[in-house]
Amino acid sequence: MKAIIFGLGNFGRSLAVKLTNLRHEVIGVDSNLETVEDLKDQLTIAICMDATDERAVKTLPLRDVDVAIVAIGENEGASILTAALLKKLNAQHIIGRAISPLHQTVLESMGISEIIHPEEDSAERLALRLNLNKLVDSFDLPGDYSIIETAVPDHFIGKSIAEIQPRQNYQVNIITIIRKVPKINMIGAKYEVIEVIGVPEADLVFLEKDILVIFGANKDVQKLAEE
Amino acid sequence: MKAIIFGLGNFGRSLAVKLTNLRHEVIGVDSNLETVEDLKDQLTIAICMDATDERAVKTLPLRDVDVAIVAIGENEGASILTAALLKKLNAQHIIGRAISPLHQTVLESMGISEIIHPEEDSAERLALRLNLNKLVDSFDLPGDYSIIETAVPDHFIGKSIAEIQPRQNYQVNIITIIRKVPKINMIGAKYEVIEVIGVPEADLVFLEKDILVIFGANKDVQKLAEE
Ligand SMILES: Nc1ncnc2c1ncn2[C@@H]1O[C@H](COP(=O)(O)OP(=O)(O)OP(=O)(O)O)[C@@H](O)[C@H]1O
Ligand SMILES: Nc1ncnc2c1ncn2[C@@H]1O[C@H](COP(=O)(O)OP(=O)(O)OP(=O)(O)O)[C@@H](O)[C@H]1O
């Protein structure tokens, strides 16, 4: 896959490097020369350019890439202008970034449907984690169902899935369990690794530090996460 | 739950507002008066203060809150100093924020184990989504298993779960399906809502725009997401 990323701040640079490491071709663009120099060896190509300068942006292979991402954030003006320019130059798949509701509205009115809010999304996930006492992490599903990781309730410990009967008694489906698993390394030394145990068998017994990954209706899942 | 959030930039303010809306007591702290004024009505309390000023921070009820979050980012110096100050004043649960690997290392060496990287985490999730063609979203699990949302493979459409036999033939567990569901509103008008259908029955038939939420070993899950 070919991608162009405009703006190599924290978000843009992490995205560019990650995609390059996943073996995609990434062109990174930033107006700060030092930033471009720093990333030269980590991306396919790093170019120093003002993303709002039409004559410069026109020289990029915009019709040839699969996705063009505007990762400029705080500089909302530049972020919007760059997105507008990409629209004008017919880039095929544009992903924008919005820092404020107004910023979001402007991008949407330009027909940019895919808009990322890095800080807001991370804040939301942390807020949900802090909100539910035993919640370790959660997965966004639309509507009234959730998938969450939660610390095992105390009264499950020492019992098996067959005894607990999560579907009948708690209306949740236990997808899997995350637990520390002892391993032996190449030189015979013991060590522990946090692992997912796969699809659980009915005779699996819950252990003290287990983290359950469960699926169910929000209120049922929250009930377990609050125990 | 009582929380103090230092730094009300994009991340800090979203977190503070979200937690307040979830009915927690939130004290928001920022050195920028305008920022504090803007948030006065949306938080329990908003205070204008330099988070690196020990005499000022000492006046906060640090021993009385459940969590103290340093949401200052770009100003790495202030972010680190604030975290150090909270450590010194014995705040019970400190969550830090790191913008660079050095920033992370300093916080870790101070004994701050919970560190958030808002931009980097969002970049990682977007990179994974772009990497797997039909991937809609993914949930981080340790080790070699994943939960992902993926567009339904073409050859599933029109068949039932019983016919497809996902566990035998694809080694994945279909947790649930996200699809558009027709509804009637209060005045009798029809509309559509994107919903999770709950735990799927064996006779459920896959439809064209379905999004499958599946669990399985990475390579099996990726195989489906690439079809
Ligand atoms: N007109 C422009 N053309 C090219 N690059 C730009 C332009 N304006 C800003 N940038 C670059 O975009 C990057 C992100 O800048 P911005 O000020 O938006 O930061 P930010 O919102 O703090 O980003 P992040 O949160 O990802 O760190 C910077 O490296 C900056 O040099
Ligand atoms: N010493 C300090 N004391 C209190 N507040 C501070 C201090 N330094 C910075 N802040 C506040 O922290 C907030 C975040 O600032 P920072 O420069 O870290 O931005 P940022 O990394 O771009 O944040 P975000 O990505 O969340 O928007 C700002 O509102 C700023 O006023």
Provide the descriptors you would attach to this structure in a database record.
9 helices; Rossmann fold; 227 residues; homodimer; elongated; five-stranded antiparallel β-sheet; Alpha-Beta Plaits; 2 domains; binds adenosine-5'-triphosphate; 11 strands; alpha/beta
Uncertain segments of chain A: none
Number of structural domains of chain A: 2
The N- to C-terminal Cα distance of chain A equals 45 Å
Specify the CATH class of the largest domain in chain A.
Answer: Alpha Beta
**Strand residues, percent of chain A:** 25-35%
Produce the secondary structure layout.
The structure is a homodimer of 227-residue chains.
Chain A: E1 2-6, H1 10-21, E2 25-30, H2 33-39, E3 45-48, H3 54-57, E4 67-70, H4 76-88, E5 94-97, H5 101-109, E6 114-116, H6 118-131, E7 135-139, E8 145-151, H7 161-164, H8 166-170, E9 172-184, E10 190-196, E11 211-217, H9 218-226
Parallel strand pairs in A: 1-2, 1-4, 2-3, 4-5, 5-6
Antiparallel strand pairs in A: 7-8, 8-11, 9-10, 9-11
The complex binds adenosine-5'-triphosphate (2 copies).
Can you offer a commentary on this structure?
2 copies of one chain form a homodimer. Chain A is an alpha/beta fold and 227 residues long. Chain A has 2 domains: 117 residues, Rossmann fold, CATH 3.40.50; 102 residues, 2-Layer Sandwich (Alpha-Beta Plaits). Helix content of chain A is 34%, strand content 29%. Chain A contains 9 helices and 11 strands. In chain A, the strands form 2 sheets. The first copy, chain A, has a 6-stranded parallel sheet with strand order 3-2-1-4-5-6, with helices on both faces. Chain A has a 5-stranded antiparallel sheet with strand order 7-8-11-9-10. The longest helix of chain A has 14 residues. The two termini of chain A are 45 Å apart. The model of chain A has no long low-confidence stretch (mean pLDDT 90). Chains A and B meet through helix 1, helix 6, strand 9, strand 10 and strand 11 of A and helix 1, helix 6, strand 9, strand 10 and strand 11 of B. The complex binds adenosine-5'-triphosphate (2 copies). The site of one adenosine-5'-triphosphate has 20 residues of chain B, from helix 1 and strand 2.
